[in-house]
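SAMPLE LOG
Freezer: B-3
Tube label: C17
Construct: single chain, 327 aa
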Amino acid sequence: MNLSFLFVEWLGTPLWMWSSFFALVIAILSFDLGILHKQNKEIGVGESVRLSALYIALGLAFGGWVWWYLGSEAGLAYLTGFVVEKTLALDNVFVIALIFSFFAVPRLYQHRVLFWGILGVIVLRAIMIGVGATLVAEFAWLLYIFAAFLIVTGIKMLFVKEAEPDVSKNVLVRFMRSRFNVTEEHHGERFFVRKADPRTGAMTWFITPLFMALVMVEVADVIFAVDSVPAIFAITTDPFLVYTSNIFAILGLRALYFALAAMIHRFRYLKPALAIVLIFIGSKIFVADLLGLEKFPAALSLSITFAIIAAGVVWSLLKTRDPRQPA
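STRUCTURE (predicted):
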C-alpha cells in the first residue's frame, strides 16, 4: 500500500501529523464517554479535579512531543498557546453556569451537554482557525489588526464593567422559542422528543431545554473564540500549533467545569489578569518591531504569560479567602 500521501503537507504540516492528532482526540473522547461516563451521573468536585489533571497532563505531554519533534521554538509556542487558551477558557465557565442555571439543566445531564458541545467546538474551531491561517498567510498585515484588537479588548476588560448577561433576553433563545416547538420540561438526556402538539393534537417533534442549552454553549464558544483565536495567532501562525493547543486546552474544560463552577467566586480577580495577558500578547508584535526583532522571544513570552496568570490566581485566592479560616 502506498502511504506517501500521508507525507503531503496540509496547512504546512504533513497529513500524518494531523491524522495522528485527530485519532488521539477521538481515542480520548471515546474513553471518556464510552468507559468513564458510559452512564449519566453527577460529577463531583474530586472527580472533576482528577479528570482535569489527566487532561492537563495529556496536553502537556503532547506539548513535550511537539518540543521533541518540531523543536524548542515550536514547543514553547504550543505551551504558551495552551496556557493562554486554558486561562481564557476559564472565563467561559461563568457563562456556561448561567446557561445551565437558566435552563435548569440537572447536574446528571450537564456532562452530556458539555461532551457534545466539545464535538461542536472541534469543528467550529477548525473552520475558524483554517480561515484565519489562510487569511494571515495571504495578508500578513492582519496580524497587526489581531494584535490591536487584543489590546483594545484587554483595555476594555480592565476598565469597562460588563453587566451579567440575561439569557432570557438572548436573541437566539427567543428565536428558538418562537420558531420551534419547545418543551417546558426536560425529558431525561434527550435533545428531541416526539409528542402531541397541544394545539392540533398531532404527533410532532419538540426540542427540549437540554438541546437549547447545548446550542447556547456552542454559541458562547464562538463568541469566546473571537478573543482566543486572534490571541493564539499573535503567539504563532503555525495552524497545527494553533489548533492543537486550542483543542487540548478546551478538552479539559469540560472536566474542569464541575470543580470551577463550585468555586467560581474564588477567581473574582482572574479577569484583570486575563485582560493584562491579552494586552501583553497583542503588544508583543509591536514591541518586536520597535526592537528590530523578527519575533518576540518565545521563552520570555511564556514566562511573562505564566507569571501574569499565576499572579491573578494567587491574588484571587488570597482576596476571597474566608477570614474565619486560619491563615
